[in-house]
Amino acid sequence: MAYAGGIGKCISLEHLVQTNTLVGLARSTRARSTKVDEMYSVNRIIHERHGSVVQIERTENGSLLTPYQAVNRAIHERRLWMESGIKKVRILVDEQVLTPKQAEFWANEEYKSLPKCEGCAKILNGDVVCHQLSGSKLFCSTVCADKDYLEEVEKRKDEEEIEYL
Q: Distance of CA 53 to CAs 10, 39, 50, 108, Å?
């Protein structure tokens, strides 16, 4: 939920995206066609075109919070599957077959595209917090939002003092 100005109204990140209140975030989230509460899951499947694959998917009910965790799990599952006698096991992300190195590169790019808290850089998921001076900044908690709010107030006080000199 979002927190607006000290004591305030709660808004979900998904609502902000849907109403296009935060244009930059909304654009990147819609371009990836994902929900805000996304996580990742890793599954072994037999793909009709690629054969044995370990698939990384974005999903609401996934158990992995970051793309790095998903790639590490996929590489681990791939190794286990190959040790059981399967000769060729591929990693599949967004219907693309990737090598382990390419999957790591994907994880880096995916991580960069995720919305993060302006205070501590934690990945935002679900409810977010903002305040009346935050503009388009989003925060993971009231602690981060309150810290930023106080910094903004101090910055504005300093600017007013300079104007009067």
A: 42, 20, 7, 21
